[in-house]
């Protein structure tokens, strides 16, 4: 298998952490792709017409894209338990969706600062995206700590990667304020070998 990859993409990081945790890292060749909404990598478009990473090329079928699809496939391939069953399955999917919502909003904030000329940037838009991040962190801190403290699953991986990205690009915003339980959980989870091995380079 081949994974279209960027070391700073938080969506790619979700996939990489899962590969580490399920022992599949050596089954995947990493292909570094530099792609943005304004300049998509032409080599990536054959795997993902949306021009986004991650995208996973397989021998047995068309390429998969979207981190949630890829993670579900890799979990199934490893006969893993990252998505649970019964009611827990839906809890995991909801928690993963919440974490991806944090990533979506935080990435839009990043793009606003990096892609738009200074005179076209809209602070109200950036603040609105941050409000989504803040509400999601508060909801996780209030409703999901018992789940996060349970057996390892994809919801936990997704939340950890989302919070790590917020630290990476928007640390000054201070998501930890008022979210003490979540901050304590993240400090512990972030020390896992899979998280340490997938830390993005500075810049």
TrEMBL record:
Domain GST N-terminal: 1-82
Any GO MF annotation of the entry: transferase activity
Keywords of this entry: Transferase
Family annotation (InterPro entries): Glutathione-S-Trfase_C_sf, Glutathione_S-Trfase_N, Thioredoxin-like_sf
Signal peptide segment: none
UniProt cross-references to CDD domains, sorted A to Z: GST_C_6, GST_N_3
Protein known as: Glutathione S-transferase
Organism this protein belongs to: Sulfitobacter noctilucicola
Organism classification: Bacteria, Pseudomonadati, Pseudomonadota, Alphaproteobacteria, Rhodobacterales
